[in-house]
Structure formats: structure tokens, C-alpha cells
Specification:
Blueprint: H1 4-11, H2 15-32, E1 39-43, E2 58-63, E3 70-71, E4 84-90, H3 92-95, H4 99-109, E5 110-121, H5 126-129, H6 147-156, E6 159-167, H7 176-181, H8 184-192, E7 199-206, H9 217-243
Parallel strand pairs: 1-2, 1-4, 2-3, 4-5
Antiparallel strand pairs: 5-7, 6-7
């Protein structure tokens, strides 16, 4: 069992963790409200109810963390192929053992045009620099997958990125007073340092590769025979012209 999700859930109860949780919850609520279908799944971290504003009739929280409705490995999902319409991954890639394996499982389980929503810590930010401190603990010793790398992985798995944005521009400190005084950075961050937020959010859709239409052999044979007849008629007409 991966205990890092439970440790991160405990961290979410700290002042800095609550700031992250509330910021991401607002993004998930905006993102899922207009996604339609029948089945939606959130992997890990039930402390952030990513599907709260979604209206699908079947919504489930799954994973290894305490409090999830369905206990399972995020790298081996117990769902049929192409059976889900929406999967939410709040920091799952940050703390799972094999992020790419998780994405492959999501690709397998999602229906064509199914949506994938991901949040993760941005290594190219002040929050990423916090990882350099010796003896770092959760969340600073997570995977911190870079956004460009994540987009490459998604592209290889036939996902198209629809949206990406950054959140949490305040410095990664636990003092509530400092967090409150730096509130203005959340409003100014997108303008002054667009890719510098401590958390990134990605919305992607599963696409189907284009198919090449192969014509039946009889059609090709007919076209070939027709071309041969036309050439023979031209030759006969040319011989008649020379005899005149």
C-alpha cells in the first residue's frame, strides 16, 4: 500500500495544505460542472472532492488512501476498457510509484472523448525549489512531474490537452499571516509569472487516431479493368486514324 497519499492527506490539513486544497477544489468545480456522461471516478485524496459539482449519475472515489469508497491500485484500475467518461487525478502522479502506468490505465478505462483532469506540483516554481531542502518530507519529496513532460506523455497516449493553468502563487510557507499577506500574488501571478504557480492543472480529452479507409479489392479490380479498356479503345482509334 502506498502510504504517501495518506501522509499528503494529513499535510492538506495544515495552513499551506488548506490553501492548496481550496484552490484546487475551485478549479475542479469549474472544470467538471459541464462534463457530461454516466460514470466519473476520482483516484485518491477524498479530502478534495473533485467531482462535487459534476452531475453524472455514477460517481466514485477509488484508490489506496484512507476514506476512498473503492480500495484499488491506481496502476491497475478495476474498471472495464472504455467504461468511464471522466477521471480526476488530484496529485496522483506526484505520489504514485509509476506515473506513466497510471496514465496508461486511465487511457484504457476512458471512453473515446472521455475527459482526464490532473493537478500536480510544479517543479519549476518556488514550490519546486522547496524540494532542494535536505531531509524534505511529504509533499516535497514527491515526483513533481514537469508540465511539458506530462503533455508529452498525454500526447503519446492519444490525449489532447484542452486546457492548462497554474494556481498557488503564494510562497510555500506554513505561517497563516504570511499566506494572508501574500494573497495579492494569486491575482498578479498569471500576469507577472504565468508558469510560476506552485500547482498546475490540466484538462485533456481522449481522442481516437484517424483510420485509413481501405477500398474493397473488387473496386480496385474494376477500376483497373476499366482503365485497361479505355487505353485499348484509344489505341484502336489511333490505328483507324492512321489508315484514313
Amino acid at each position: 500500500m502506498n502510504a504517501e497519499f495518506d501522509h499528503f492527506a494529513t499535510w492538506l490539513a495544515t495552513p499551506l495544505g488548506r490553501y492548496v486544497a481550496m484552490s484546487e477544489l475551485a478549479w475542479f468545480e469549474r472544470s467538471v460542472v459541464d462534463i457530461f456522461g454516466y460514470k466519473a471516478v476520482q483516484l485518491e485524496l477524498p479530502q478534495i472532492d473533485c467531482l462535487r459539482s459534476n452531475r453524472m449519475p455514477w460517481r466514485l472515489q477509488a484508490g489506496e488512501a484512507a476514506g476512498t469508497q473503492l480500495k484499488c491500485s491506481v496502476q491497475a484500475l478495476p474498471f472495464d476498457e472504455q467504461s468511464l467518461d471522466l477521471i480526476a487525478l488530484p496529485h496522483v502522479l506526484d505520489f504514485c510509484q509509476d506515473p506513466h502506468a497510471v496514465l496508461r490505465e486511465c487511457q484504457r478505462a476512458l471512453r473515446p472523448e472521455g475527459r482526464l483532469l490532473i493537478t500536480g506540483f510544479n517543479p519549476w516554481s518556488l514550490w519546486g525549489l522547496r524540494r532542494l531542502k535536505p531531509n524534505s518530507e511529504i509533499p516535497w519529496k514527491g515526483n513533481f512531474v514537469a508540465l511539458p513532460k506530462l503533455k508529452d506523455w498525454l500526447s503519446v497516449l492519444d490525449f489532447q490537452t484542452l486546457q492548462d493553468e497554474h494556481l498557488c502563487y503564494r510562497p510555500p510557507v506554513q505561517r497563516p499571516g504570511w499566506l494572508e499577506k501574500s494573497r495579492f500574488l494569486d491575482q498578479a501571478g498569471d500576469r507577472l509569472w504565468p508558469a510560476g504557480g506552485g500547482v498546475y492543472c490540466v484538462a485533456a480529452v481522449k481522442r481516437i487516431r484517424g483510420m485509413h479507409l481501405i477500398e474493397p479489392q473488387w473496386r480496385s479490380a474494376t477500376a483497373t479493368a476499366g482503365s485497361a479498356m479505355a487505353i485499348e479503345k484509344l489505341r484502336q482509334q489511333a490505328r483507324k486514324d492512321r489508315c484514313k
